[in-house]
Amino acid sequence: MAEPVIRVSGLKTSFQRKGLWLPVVRDVSFDVAAGETVALVGESGSGKSVTAMSLMRLYPPETCRIEGEVRLEGQDLLQFPERRMRDIRGNRVAMIFQEPMTSLNPSLTIGDQISEVLVAHRGLSLKAAAKETLALMEKVRIPSAAKRMQEYPHQLSGGMRQRIMIAMALACRPRLLIADEPTTALDVTIQAQILELIKLLQEEEGMGVLFITHDMGVVAEIADRTIVMYKGEAIERGATGEIFADPQRAYTKALLSAVPKLGSMTGEPGPARFPLIDVESGHPVEMPVVADTVSAEPVPLLQVRDLTTRFDIANGFLGARSGRVHAVESVSFDLKAGETLALVGESGCGKSTTGRTIMRLLNATSGSVKLDGREILDLTGQQLRDMRRHIQMIFQDPFASLNPRIEVGDAVAEPLLTHGIASGKRDARDQVADLMVKVGLQPDMAGRFPHEFSGGQRQRLCIARALAMAPQVIVADEAVSALDVSIKAQVINLMLDLQESLGLAYVFISHDMAVVERMSHRVAVMYLGEIVEIGPRRSIFENPQHPYTRRLLEAVPIPDPSRRGMRRGLSNDEIKSPVRPLSYVAPKRDYREVSPGHLVQVFGEEWGNATAAA
């Protein structure tokens, strides 16, 4: 049997803290063959990224101790001096990191950054490196590659930046490619393109791939073998199909049970909680059926009509206007008490701007937003502050939403005291204790600081703070997208519980179609600031009409290893820009009703082949 590209034996990584060496990764062993993809999966803190960084020896030896063996084609990397490791990194072993914007130098052009790798590792001249850089950019399917060589990272989309990172990783034709959560921050359609690209390049180069992720749908699509990590240990390993079909460990079962599966709600009338499995016992957790909480009142709680939000672009020394960003264009929808309307689409489609404009965090250019029949866009001063008692927002990043310098109990109590809901500090403390229990936390946790909580717990705190106002509507802007899969399932179940008990209405903003399918009553699909399709959740998912809706649904990774050989085809399309000239007049859009409440924008030639296929 041929020697694997890399063989890891008894890997142990420890970090120094207060004079003690604390092990974070313990006795991890695996190998990766040429042309094979091995997935390291687990939640945040499981040790999967530490494992990858240890293989590359990227931690400073003063504070990190790595033991065991890491043999690259028979040679133990842990025995190499640092100078020789610099020759290995980016040459024989390459790594793609999660966030390309923090991995690329903002002050250098794309071409210069890729050329630097070729000059350093392959000894090419600047002219030869520029020629090879162009070939690499074309290889990773960068449109107009010659022009893009002169551009800077901020001028590229997230998907294109990740392609640049892949081009840099492949510059020296590595034997092993380590991909550390390379698609987590990307939209679902861009994620599909990057996964397809990695598969295609692996076939062409014959390299081994170590793929690190917590997304089991991605694992099913790309991995030959899977290693499940939990608390620094590899607790289960095997062929991907076997892991999915017959998981042995309780944690693996819990991880798989929490994965949102597109199509799992087919035929279901309304939202449903995620079926969870207990990590310790492996037994299913009892889940009550979600009761129908949608109000039968004929007048909607929230009415949005022709909402338009545009931003002027100023250029030049005097700041003359050169164009406008048409972020939200003539958006209309209703929301009833106890109902969840999901706004879905890719980054830049206008869904977050819609939510922020409804909250009056951004000013609308025109349109109407009525809460309980009262126009929000006309409110100022104290009237606007009073309105915000009735409509609250949960942001994507809970850590950025909480003041790191004050205790979380004070953060939750602050709106109670500011709006005079609590009669004093003692009353506020009592209400905070009740809110902590309501979101599944212990009252005594109120004395802690934000950094002492996990990501899921911090998001629960943000929900508690939003609930403090006893709002009628909550705008949840990507409120679960940054969370691990099991924590995401728990937070969504909590939101459904609260909706049922308090009659809350949600505007749920997300790009995760599988989560939206389980969470929502109705769905609005946005593209370039416009709603292209809106209707009941079942209608949108079971009978999508618009080509863009179909594209979004087709790009969702399905946690089914039998689909691993399926090829999606690689697209070089980027989402179009919402920037328009000052003279641009938005066209009047027509909608047709496919079924009761299911409206689709009449689409024309702009959708090309997608229209013909539809």
Automatic annotation (TrEMBL):
Reactions performed catalytically: glutathione(out) + ATP + H2O = glutathione(in) + ADP + phosphate + H(+)
GO molecular function terms attached to this record: ATP binding
SUPFAM superfamilies to which the protein is assigned, alphabetical: P-loop containing nucleoside triphosphate hydrolases (SSF52540)
SMART domains: AAA
Protein name: Glutathione import ATP-binding protein GsiA
Keyword Iron: no
ABC transporter domain: residues covered: 6-256, 302-553
